[in-house]
Write a sequence for this structure.
């Protein structure tokens, strides 16, 4: 066993003396120091993200990019194609959630919602008949209003991907969109969903369409009947993406809910990631269980990180967890842990096979590993304040940020999407990242999500979202959640910085 | 009652305490998904890039830690029939030859069987045309009898110029055409393709093959059809195949210029460049200019020395955290001597098994491979790229391109101030090493001779094989039932039926791993 004792914690990951040779010896504390530029440009370290940035006249240069998912300056417009009730909105929402989570600003634009704004009261499928000129006109207006918003979002609001969620079943409509994209310098990627199985369509209607505002004053049978007629309105004019006619377009065609895919002309990194994601998701009912390890020795001491073992209460949680899983009667449950002692000890109590993932290890606190918050405030007050200012982007010296963690956890999410019932035994920061993905939380909310010890979160996909049940297993434990204090200024008093530190030994 | 946990000293992983000696090393980075072995079956006419994809995919899978091997039926055939004379051999009505080819396929399948069952292989790539349903049916049967998953990769291409360039590049130089001029070889090969065309039954996603798992790669990656992905591995394979391309390009790998920590012989850290390191950056800028590359992308890590090096080029560049040097954990910024003094045990363990060795609170080379995998995936997508990275990272990347094993990887020579230019050719990669003639310290530490080798070092591990696959990698078919001489005299294109007499036909080819009477042949 080789964990670092507290006394030697600083002999381990020592803070790097930054910029030893960056000719100006700027320390992170000095931030962007004003220096006369020489050739080549000076580097200073961004104190928050710990990234080296070239500076001119003390101002960071802009053209250096940290590797991000969407590297081109060319935004992407994703266009769904397909008859109603083919899961287009499901795919749009899910993809948008995923892309936002991996750090690509994405928004979906659902033309149906524009239509509902326009025409407050929906009467019947008649509105969608191809010979309903009034209806056609309104629908065209809605589409163009949505495209206007797309343009606004991608050119002015910093969006990188827009998902244009509508039927787009005619080649003519798609041509209009392609022209719109060309004029604005957007790349277009089509996602078509094709499904002929009446059971799947029926199920989809019942799941999401009946609860749509269009059918609030309607009984189930009537609604289903009307919706089926609505689908009929599109069927005659539907032109599917064609291997020959559309050979120059970039697209993925999803057939029979993921049984089969046709992928054409993947142009760039982001499209390739989207294709990979769409090939991994499925809609088989299942639940994902997230929890942290049982209470650890270092938890009790109020220390972060480290690789300590479980306390007696932590071990009791392991047993309770084992009983809980039995009562759930889950078929083929997969259990995943990190490679840290405390999650493995927790999983061992379950007496089921489990898999260890290094990427599930807790956030690396770098030089602050195994310290108490009080000690961090004492040794690195500036670091502590910076973390409170932007906890998502803040990188520990020689360690990681939540942003780093999300990148590290992406393969776990991808594999979770592939799997059915899974229990993930992980850590506070890791669990927050995973949870944020499933609950579509922003980068600001993510680092403050409540993931207490000895509590299991059961996530079950429903309609477009995810149902969460929080199950406390009634084993006492320390609280490890530190709220953001009111005062996050560097100049704050030590007392103010420590105001929200949870009680510990 | 949960048992106590002990920590593996090399990999720093926690395991249940056992009295037994530790098992083979496992894939520490990503979980080693419990999976039945997979047979990847290539489908397609000759000269559709099947062998190219087989080899490339195998190299990738081995590198990420899945033991994989190619079984090229063509090589079994060449072994069985030493002298190829002409496409007549592939004529569908050449009954004797059909039999031989069938025997070769069976022999290869036998070797697939022992590779997956007895030798720790996880994936076998069965590289042959497999253009008929009958043949594929036989393979499916073989798979279900042995509990192997079957995944088909079909390559479809009708562009005559692509096919012609493929023939020129790899076929005319193949042993079949040793004594043949290029034009004749080209002509013969095209006839050979014709022999398969009449009986070719492409995978049919709508009816006949709708329940099979496969990917159809159409027109060299312009389009893909994917049917029934079954598991993690298949999904990864598809993602990889969708990212590779065959455009000519070069990848340049180098380390940052010499850093001040290099001068002091310190590990890791985040120091800046020494004066000589700066000189190298300037030389690199000149070198890049000389190469006159179109759209060169420059990637650096997020550490100071690599960014300073990139800065000097005056080109836009991207920073990847994934390219940062191996995390030496508690040993960061120590010299080897300090490490030896402070953590003598750790120091010795690292020499024992450098690939798997994880620094306390740090990383191993194995971890590093997992970390840089997205970089490899994106390198495959890109065209000309210069990667400015670090010693251990560069070794990992290089091992991927040159198909080096886990044993060799941590000792690959990647000196400072030297650019490696990698250019894909045929099935492999050409390497040019260009020293920019700026002096630098040597940071390469060879494995000491006298070091105790880890118990696992000589064992072929289950989880990570990175096996080099030189040409001789395939199991050579062995002939048991016939004396060698008799067999090799068998004319390659059997024109006279008398030679197909019963005494010659029941040729049984068996893999060397059957170990029957084979020792003498080695």
């Amino acid at each position: 066993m080789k964990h670092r004792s507290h006394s030697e914690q600083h002999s381990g990951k020592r803070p790097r003396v930054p910029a030893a040779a960056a000719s100006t010896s700027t320390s992170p504390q000095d931030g962007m120091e004003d220096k006369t530029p020489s050739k080549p440009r000076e580097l200073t370290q961004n104190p928050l993200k710990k990234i080296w940035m070239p500076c001119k006249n003390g101002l960071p240069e802009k053209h250096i990019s940290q590797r991000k998912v969407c590297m081109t300056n060319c935004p992407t417009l994703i266009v769904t194609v397909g008859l109603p009730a083919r899961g287009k909105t499901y795919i749009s929402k899910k993809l948008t959630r995923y892309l936002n989570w991996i750090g690509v600003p994405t928004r979906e634009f659902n033309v149906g919602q524009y239509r509902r704004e326009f025409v407050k009261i929906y009467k019947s499928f008649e509105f969608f008949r191809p010979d309903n000129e009034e209806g056609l006109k309104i629908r065209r207006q809605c589409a163009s209003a949505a495209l206007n918003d797309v343009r606004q979002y991608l050119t002015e609001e910093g969006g990188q991907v827009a998902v244009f969620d509508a039927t787009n079943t005619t080649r003519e409509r798609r041509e209009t969109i392609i022209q719109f994209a060309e004029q604005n310098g957007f790349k277009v990627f089509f996602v078509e969903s094709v499904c002929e199985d009446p059971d799947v369509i029926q199920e989809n209607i019942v799941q999401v369409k009946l609860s749509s505002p269009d059918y609030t004053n309607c009984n189930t049978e009537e609604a289903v009947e009307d919706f089926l007629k609505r689908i009929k309105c599109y069927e005659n004019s539907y032109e599917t993406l064609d291997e020959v006619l559309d050979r120059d377009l970039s697209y993925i065609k999803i057939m029979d809910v993921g049984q089969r895919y046709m992928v054409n002309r993947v142009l760039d990194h982001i499209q390739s990631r989207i294709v990979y994601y769409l090939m991994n998701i499925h809609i088989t009912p299942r639940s994902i269980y997230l929890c942290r390890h049982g209470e650890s020795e270092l938890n009790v001491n109020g220390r972060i990180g480290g690789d300590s073992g479980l306390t007696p209460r932590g071990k009791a949680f392991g047993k309770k967890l084992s009983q809980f899983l039995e009562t759930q009667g889950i078929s083929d449950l997969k259990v995943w842990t990190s490679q840290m002692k405390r999650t493995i000890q927790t999983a061992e109590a379950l007496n089921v096979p489990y898999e260890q993932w290094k990427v599930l290890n807790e956030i690396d606190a770098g030089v602050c590993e195994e310290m108490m918050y009080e000690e961090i405030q004492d040794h690195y007050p500036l670091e502590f304040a910076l973390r409170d200012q932007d906890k998502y982007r803040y990188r520990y010296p020689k360690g990681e940020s939540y942003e780093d963690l999300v990148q590290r956890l992406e393969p776990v999410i991808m594999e979770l999407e592939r799997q059915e019932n899974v229990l993930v035994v992980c850590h506070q920061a890791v669990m927050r990242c995973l949870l944020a993905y499933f609950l579509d939380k922003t980068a600001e909310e993510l680092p403050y999500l409540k993931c207490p010890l000895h509590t299991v979160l059961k996530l079950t996909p429903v309609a477009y979202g995810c149902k969460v049940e929080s199950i406390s297993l009634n084993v006492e434990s320390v609280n490890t959640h530190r709220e953001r204090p009111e005062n996050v200024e560097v100049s704050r008093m030590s007392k103010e910085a420590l105001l929200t530190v949870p009680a510990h030994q | 009652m949960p048992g106590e946990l002990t920590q593996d000293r090399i990999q720093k992983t926690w395991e249940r305490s056992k009295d037994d000696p530790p098992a083979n090393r496992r894939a520490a980075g990503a979980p080693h998904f419990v999976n039945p072995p997979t047979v990847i079956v290539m489908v397609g006419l000759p000269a559709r890039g099947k062998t190219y994809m087989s080899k490339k995919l195998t190299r990738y899978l081995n590198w990420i830690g899945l033991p994989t091997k190619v079984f090229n039926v063509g090589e079994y055939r060449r072994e069985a029939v030493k002298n190829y004379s002409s496409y007549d051999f592939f004529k569908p009505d050449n009954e004797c030859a059909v039999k031989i080819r069938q025997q070769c396929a069976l022999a290869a399948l036998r070797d697939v069987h022992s590779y997956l069952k007895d030798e720790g292989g996880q994936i076998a790539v069965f590289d042959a045309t497999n253009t008929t349903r009958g043949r594929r049916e036989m393979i499916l049967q073989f798979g279900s009898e042995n509990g192997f998953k079957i995944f088909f990769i079909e390559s479809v291409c009708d562009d005559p110029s692509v096919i012609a360039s493929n023939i020129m590049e790899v076929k005319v130089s193949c042993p079949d055409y040793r004594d043949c001029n290029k034009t004749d070889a080209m002509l013969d090969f095209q006839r050979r393709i014709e022999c398969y065309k009449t009986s070719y039954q492409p995978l049919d996603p709508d009816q006949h093959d709708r329940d099979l798992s496969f990917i159809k790669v159409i027109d060299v990656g312009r389009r893909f059809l994917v049917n029934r992905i079954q598991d993690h591995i298949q999904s990864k394979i598809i993602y990889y195949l969708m990212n590779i391309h065959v455009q000519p390009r070069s990848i340049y790998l180098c380390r940052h210029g010499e850093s001040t920590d290099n001068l002091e012989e310190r590990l890791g850290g985040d120091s800046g460049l020494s004066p000589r390191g700066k000189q190298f950056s300037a030389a690199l800028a000149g070198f890049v200019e000389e190469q006159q590359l179109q759209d060169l992308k420059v990637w650096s890590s997020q550490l100071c020395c690599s960014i300073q090096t990139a800065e000097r080029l005056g080109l836009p560049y991207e920073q990847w955290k994934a390219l940062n040097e191996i995390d030496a954990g508690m040993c960061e910024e120590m010299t080897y001597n300090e490490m030896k003094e402070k953590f003598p045990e750790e120091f010795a363990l690292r020499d024992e098994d450098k690939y798997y060795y994880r620094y306390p609170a740090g990383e191993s080379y194995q971890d590093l491979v997992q970390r840089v995998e997205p970089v490899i995936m994106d390198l495959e997508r890109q065209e000309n790229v210069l990667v400015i990275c670090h010693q251990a990272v560069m070794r990992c990347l290089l091992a991927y391109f040159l198909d080096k094993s886990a044993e060799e990887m941590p000792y690959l020579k990647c000196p400072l101030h030297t650019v490696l230019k990698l250019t894909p050719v045929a099935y492999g990669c050409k390497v040019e090493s260009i020293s920019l003639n700026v002096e630098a310290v040597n940071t390469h530490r060879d494995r000491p001779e006298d070091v105790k080798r880890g118990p696992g070092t000589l064992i072929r591990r289950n989880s990570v094989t990175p096996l080099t696959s030189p040409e001789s990698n395939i199991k050579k078919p062995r002939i048991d039932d016939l004396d060698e001489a008799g067999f090799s005299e068998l004319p390659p294109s059997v024109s006279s039926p008398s030679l197909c007499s019963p005494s010659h036909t029941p040729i049984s080819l068996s893999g060397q791993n059957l170990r029957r009477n084979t020792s003498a042949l080695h």
User: Anything to note?
Assistant: The longest strand of chain B covers residues 149-156. Chain B has a mean pLDDT of 85. Residues 255 and 390 of chain B are 5 Å apart (CA to CA). The radius of gyration of chain B is 25 Å.
